[in-house]
Amino acid sequence: MEQNFSIKQWSEDDKPREKLMLKGRAVLSDAELIAILIGSGSRNESAVSLSKRVLASVDHNLNALGKVSLQQLMSFKGIGEAKAVTIAAALELGRRRRAEDVVDLQKITSSKAVFEIMQPIIGELPHEEFWVLYLNNSNKVIYKAQLSKGGITGTVVDIRLLFKTALEQGATSIILAHNHPSGKLMASDADKDITKKLKFAGDQLDIKVLDHVIITENGYWSFQDEGFF
Questions:
Q1: CA dist., res. 55 & res. 64, Å (int)
Q2: What letter does residue 42 receive in the DSSP assignment?
Q3: Distance (Å, whole) CA 138 – CA 198
Q4: Is 39 helix (H, G, I), strand (E, B) or coil?
Q5: Nearest to 113 by CA among 196, 165, 169, 175
């Protein structure tokens, strides 16, 4: 009977699953990640070693590996149909994620760019919603989320949740946005108060509040443009 070298039988330093859980996914090599997908090698070869051979066949290029057919993957001893399908599915998910990133990572260069992103979301609503755009070092939107619905007050906007999300997303700056269903392009006292509080909190965490943009159906008002910051 053929005996497989499962991940559980590897030495502690050669366990990709445990390594991912202990140190995070970023520290794993491409071969280790593929080894997790296929789970086991053969009697004479570990899953990591098999994965290295597969990668070597495409000069360690993941884009090229994504184009390899199921039949080509199955030509490697130790890779059957199930393992080949798993590898192909994982690489296809990676391709789709990259395609989404290209669309979603919009760079903010002005308050108008904020309006163009947020107007379709909140510009025509009959009630107020408060949203946050989370940005990376290049001022590209890496995440956006609704923080509250129904009005802007210090009790409705959860400052701790806002910055918890910023830290989880690895954001270096944020932009605030909310709508005025009335169409009035002017900041209220409540708008100014919450902006001051959020700007102060951001300064303490080294997460810069770049702007707060009020959105209506046909226009916008920017705290940055009006010299508030």
A1: 9
A2: B
A3: 21
A4: coil
A5: 175
Tell me the CA distances in angstroms from 160 to 64, 180, 200, 212, one per residue in order: 44, 24, 13, 18
Helices (H), 43-179: 47-56, 62-65, 70-74, 81-104, 111-122, 159-169
The angle subtended at Cα 115 by Cα 110 and Cα 117, nearest 5°, is 100
Closest CA to 68 of 203, 59, 122: 59
Residues, the chain, total?
229
Given 3-state DSSP classes, what are the helix, strand and coil percentages for the chain, each rounded to the nearest 5?
50, 15, 35
Round to whole Å and give the CA distance between 29 and 35: 10
Alpha carbon 212 to its chain's center: 22
pLDDT band at 12 (very low <50, low <70, confident <90, very high): very low
pLDDT(13) > 50: no
Instruction: Say if residue 43 is exposed, middle or buried (CB neighbours under 10 Å; 0-12, 13-18, 19+).
Output: exposed
Q: Is the pLDDT of residue 229 over 90?
A: no
Q: Are 194 and 154 in contact (CB under 8 A)?
A: yes
